[in-house]
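Collaborator request log, item 7. Partner lab (contact: R.S.) asked for a structural prediction of Menaquinol:cytochrome c reductase cytochrome c subunit to inform their binding assays.
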Amino acid sequence: MHRGKGMKFVGDSRVPAQKKPNIPKDYSEYPGKTEAFWPNFLLKEWMVGAVFLIGYLLLTIAHPSPLERVADPTDATYTPLPDWYFLFLYQLLKYKYAAGDYTLIGTMIIPGIAFGSLLLAPWLDPGPERRPSKRPIAVGMMLLAVISTIFLTWESVVTHDWEKQAKQGEIVEANVDKDAEGYQIYSGQSCIGCHGDSLQGATGPSLLETEKSAEEIMGIAKNGIPPAMPANAFEGSDEELQKLAQFIVETAEANK
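Returned to partner:
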């Protein structure tokens, strides 16, 4: 058997034998408008992105996110408000034919048509022209989207009750006398686990907003409110229960 017999040498034309210099391709139809993707174009993109990222970080430091009070799932009067970039959709759902019985139109059909049209824009206007006057379909669709978004966002801002919004989410420190005898009874029972250490509510409702009398509170402590609160949850004496109920009533009055 001869040396090398049966061996085959395979070459791959995709692997260059010599490293070529970083010279952009020749696009004669676009003189002076082409450059190497790496590192020229990509480096500039990274620099612009870094500037925006630093600016965004500085903005978050200068203006921290506003926090509201702890969410209360039992509060049916609370009106949620989305972030500013969703206000146009929020405003859209206020109109007659995009809400109520027509919610599907406002949440699925209209946004689906809008975003679907933007996704299809490259196929609807495939021309090579870059001047806006030569691309009426793409430019028209983009202008319609931008104007609609700005208009709906503006309408949402000017028609929203911002005073009510600030008041309903305002963080208010509860005025609770933790040295009172009633609070000592409250903290010694299972009440604190459901209603919070300041009666602000947790898994159970807030007691700071109750309008019940001391007798009603005593009745609830004994009989419970199925299934959320079991009967005989209070394990102290009747005298302690009386003091606890009176403490809750007085605390709720002080926080109104």
